């Protein structure tokens, strides 16, 4: 059993990527570097959380970003990155999540319970 703990942080580099917009964000999140993905997802938490008053940077791309996060969950080979994306959706977005709903067959078995929770948050 792997008991290692991963440490994820973000820097000015990730903040600049978010400020550049959805194309720059997509390039990292759809890329193959898991560490860069997870760092950017952590930075997105800062941008998406209204408490930090940074959400104005993503206001114009929020719908595209929510679609992109769903795509990360559906296409990721890394459960940790998918879990980070699920956490962002469950914290800062609201169903319907059509990309997830239409691609449940592509979700890893480990992630399915969390994805089903997010898809059905509005039914609780």
Total strands: 0
Radius of gyration: 14 Å
Give the termini separation: 35 Å
Helix- and strand-based class? mainly alpha
Please trace the helix and strand order, writing H or E for each element. HHHHHHH
- Secondary structure tally, helices: 7
Largest sheet descriptor = none
Poorly predicted runs: none
Approximate helicity band: 55-70%
Report the sheet-strand fraction. under 5%
Oligomer: single chain
Description:
The protein contains 7 helices and no strands. By secondary structure, it is mainly alpha-helical.
Topology overview:
Elements: H1 12-20, H2 22-29, H3 34-48, H4 62-75, H5 79-92, H6 98-101, H7 112-119
Helix pairs in contact: 1-3, 2-4, 3-5, 4-5, 5-7
Task: Give me some keywords for this one.
single chain; 124 residues; mainly alpha
In short:
This protein is an all-alpha fold and about 120 residues long. It has helices spanning about 10-20, 20-30, 35-50, 60-75, 80-90, 100, 110-120. Helix 5 (about 80-90) packs parallel to helix 7 (about 110-120).
């Amino acid at each position: 059993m792997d008991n290692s703990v991963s440490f994820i942080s973000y820097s000015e580099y990730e903040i600049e990527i978010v400020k550049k917009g959805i194309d720059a964000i997509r390039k990292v999140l759809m890329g193959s570097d898991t560490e860069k993905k997870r760092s950017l997802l952590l930075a997105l938490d800062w941008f998406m959380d209204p408490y930090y008053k940074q959400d104005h940077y993503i206001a114009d791309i929020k719908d595209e970003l929510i679609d992109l996060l769903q795509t990360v969950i559906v296409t990721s080979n890394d459960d940790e990155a998918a879990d980070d994306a699920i956490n962002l959706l469950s914290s800062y977005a609201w169903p319907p999540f059509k990309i997830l709903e239409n691609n449940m067959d592509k979700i890893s078995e480990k992630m399915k319970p969390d994805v089903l929770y997010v898809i059905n948050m509005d039914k609780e």
